[in-house]
Design a protein that fits this description.
Elements (H helix, E strand, L loop, with lengths): L19 H13 L4 H12 L5 E4 L18 E8 L5 E7 L9 E5 L13 H7 L3 E5 L20 H23 L4 E6 L1 H12 L4 E7 L12 H6 L20 E4 L4 E4 H10 L3 H15 L4 H8 L3 H10 L6 H15 L9 H4 L21 E6 L6 H10 L4 E6 L6 H4 L1 H13 L5
Parallel strand pairs: 1-2, 4-5, 4-6, 6-7, 7-10, 10-11
Antiparallel strand pairs: 2-3, 3-5, 8-9
Helix pairs in contact: 2-11, 4-5, 10-11
Amino acid sequence: MDTEINKVHDSPPKNTSSGFSFNIFRTIHSWYLPTSRTLAEDSEKNLLSMANINLSYDGTETVVKNETQSRPDIPDARVMNVSVDKENFIRTLYMKNKNEMTEKNLVITHGFGNGLGFYFKNYEELGNKSKSNVYSIDWLGMGLSSRPDFKINKKHSPEEQVAFAEEFFVESLEKWREEMKIDKMVLLGHSFGGYMSSLYALKYPERIEKLVLESPVGIPETPESMRDLVDHGKFPEKRPKEKDSLPKSTQDSSVDKNQGRVIDRDEEIVERLRNVPFQYKLLGKAAYKLWDSGQSPQGLLRFFGRYGQTLTGKYISRLAGLNEEEKKALSDYMFHVSAQKGSSEYAMGVILKPFSFARVPLKNRIINLTVPTSFIYGEKDWMDQSAGKEISDSLKVPSEYHIIPNAGHNMHLDNPEGFNKVLIEIINNNHQE
């Protein structure tokens, strides 16, 4: 497929408002929340400069110069804003495969609070070893895609609200596909991206060659033992001391030798929650109310202003597969893309309950998938791997299930070599079809 994009959306125009009061407000706001569209774009460029790809930018943006530019073995990549309607665009990274005859297309969709920059450790190898063109996008309303107003009609039923939010993402992806003139694709979705990619594959199976779900959120139903907490924000009451005896095992199941009871993973989590200190229960209840009222983690980050960079820094510091320079670049990128105008992030409280359980679980929906599907989880993933394994075993279409060693939920960052190896095998293997 020859991709010549004619409709490239320029970056949003700079605010040209004038006046003393406006300038004072802008100065104070810039000090309190030191971000802007320009700073966000710069943070993306800085992060992608570490991706070992020859990177160019369309529109008004400049080519990134780095030490890889003269090397023919390094993939060429373009970053562009692809229009999906008159007002909105989707940020896109595109790497054309050096084999001009290839018809395969890999499309990568990121997780919640992330962006296409989170795959900077994967682009070089995917560009060189996969027999595919590679596309990576920022979901509409996230990353460096445009930020339309996202409003939910609270008069509608919860199910109708979920359907509206899901359609927002699925249809924007379909408009992007049409604009890119992609006939069929290997669609990869991470976490929230996996949730939406599943729904896209259910609605547009004719556009999917293979579906790859990287630790998708929202598959299982809310466990009975956690419903009071997840649905109502009620922490379980503490057991009397004489009955409060549980093993310290963190495995999926463990045996209480005192009572001979088998305690499954969910019950063990509940038991730990019983012993949460009172002050943390108060914080937990406050967080529950904020989530259920439509607030978002990004809103909290914006509230903390310049100190929000400390929050993203602590989050990124846990990623074992990055050096200090990469962690700093990724943390800056995460802060700046998260601190932009609130938009489709508000869909999360509509689609997901606290603790990342779906209001309308995927479990009873994706069992109807009609395309070859692969599930990938990290060995130390916090997501419920057993839910993916159960679906993988139950699908009537070719299905695979993979565990990436030495990796958690962000396995493409924790163990990029292991993740790339599995993904490239899925893309290049024609026997799964």
